[in-house]
Write a structure and sequence with these properties.
267 residues; 0% strand
């Protein structure tokens, strides 16, 4: 339990560092790569981008661009971290096959074999199942508790083990859900600011400033595309990971139910 809590604290510290580090990287990329003078006409970032130069076009999106880029880097980082964590939590092999194997061992009253199967499979399902099986063997020898008390004790042990696993599985998912909305709103903010610049250029006395007009339109379009794209990616990844967690949770519940029912039937 201490190792689980220690790992969770480390992951919390990692998550807290992702956003500021991503923001720093986004600002550096925005200023020194996208804002490089070679991307613009006359080697001056105040001028229009060189035709076909995508980096220069994005740079003209304005100061909202590095903010959305930071959100995009955060989504990518959390998605990779969640992918490896949840894949590891899924164990070595098929969760459905593992649950069936546990059921077979329990049907044969081979608790030792079931525990060994948990050690082989690993992952969250195996951790919860192993905790319940160890409690199972201890309660078999207990003569002071009634059958109902033993069943409740096993069920409580399963719930406690599950409560230790779920925070690790669900970590950073709220951030993905939040970014899915924030990125879109930041894109809309950039759109509004870009349109304000465009209308200001059009309102100039005499001939409108074509450079300012094109810059404003670029800012509006770039931020809209960037924000919506980042938000869409966050939504897709959030739904992908929550689906995988739901499947893991279902497998944990099924394995735990089998253990409790076996104890009830055999004792």
């Amino acid at each position: 339990m201490k190792s689980k809590k220690g790992l969770l604290k480390f992951k919390n510290a990692f998550a807290a560092m992702v956003i500021p580090v991503s923001l720093g990287i986004a600002i550096l990329v925005f200023l020194f790569i996208m804002g490089a003078s070679s991307n613009f006409q006359g080697n001056n970032s105040d001028n229009a981008p060189i035709p076909g130069n995508f980096l220069g076009v994005i740079y003209k999106g304005g100061f909202i661009v590095p903010v959305i880029m930071m959100l995009l880097l955060t989504v990518i980082t959390f998605s990779l971290e969640r992918f490896f964590t949840i894949s590891k939590a899924g164990g070595k092999g098929s969760a459905a096959d593992f649950v069936e194997a546990i059921k077979d061992f329990l049907a044969e009253n081979n608790i030792k074999g079931a525990i060994e199967e948990c050690d082989k499979f690993q992952g969250s399902i195996a951790s919860v199942s192993k905790a319940a099986l160890i409690k199972y063997t201890l309660l078999e020898k207990d003569t002071t508790m009634t059958k109902e008390q033993k069943l409740l004790d096993i069920q409580k042990n399963i719930e406690e083990a599950t409560s230790l696993e779920l925070p690790s599985l669900e970590q950073n998912l709220p951030a993905l859900a939040t970014i899915s909305s924030v990125a879109t709103m930041m894109g809309l903010l950039g759109t509004v600011l870009g349109m304000i610049r465009s209308f200001a250029a059009m309102a100039n006395a005499g001939a409108p400033d074509s450079v300012a007009l094109s810059t404003g339109i670029s800012e509006a379009l770039i931020n809209t595309a960037f924000g919506i794209g980042t938000g869409a990616l966050a939504v897709v990844m959030y739904n992908f990971f929550t689906t995988k967690i739901d499947k893991l949770t279902y497998s944990i519940d099924e394995a735990g139910y089998s253990i409790v029912q076996t104890f009830a039937a055999k004792h």
